[in-house]
Amino acid sequence: MRSPDAPCGRSCSAQLVLMRHGEADWPLVNSRRLRGGANDLVPLTPRGVSQIERQADLLAVHDIQYVVSSPMTRALQSASIAAQRLAVHLRVEFDLHEWIPDLTYLWTEPSQVDLALDAMRAGVAPEDFNGPPFEKEPDLRARAETALRRHVAPGPVLVLTHGILIWSLTGRQIEPSGYIWWD
To answer: 74 in helix, strand or coil?
Structure first.
């Protein structure tokens, strides 16, 4: 395995592969009516595991230096699978966690998250939203960019994170296990 702490020098690039986690088992957590941040314990479905295995195998030709992951279960499980298949180290980066749809962490219904997401994407300020305050898109993007600056390597780094975070950085929406090359 390559060490994620090898010295870089001038040859380092900031070439990143931003990958969304595999399909998450939302029915599992929704059936248990977990509140707020407890939803972030959601694991992958068997299909989600297969998606990540397939994508990691395709990325194996790119000399990925290491994998860095959001700390949330669905991303961390995806990253663990990818790192194992790519035979590289795995790092956890707290600030690559998903967008926060309710800064009070008290939401109970997925529909509440959908409403907050629609408002955020439409540019509605949290204080003007008829619901709990959410993380502003510029704050999400700044958090993600700061975190990603810590991951410069001589070759590409695979970043396992979340769709909304990737959208904030790239303006593109991607499906589970989809990825985008990003400098």
So the answer is: helix
CA distance 22 to 72: 12
pLDDT digits (tens, 9 = 90+) for 23-39: 999 888 878 877 777 77
Tally DSSP H helices, then E strands, for the chain: 6, 5
In the structure encoding, which two tokens stand for residue 52, read together?
Answer: 């990540």
9: which 2 tokens?
A: 């020098």
If we measure between CA atoms, which residue out of 137, 5, 152, 162 comes closest to residue 69?
162
| H or E segment and range at residue 30 | helix 26-31
* Topology at the third CATH level for domain 24-69+81-149+164-182: Rossmann fold (3.40.50)
Distance CA 132, CA 130 (A): 7
One-letter amino acid identity for 132?
P
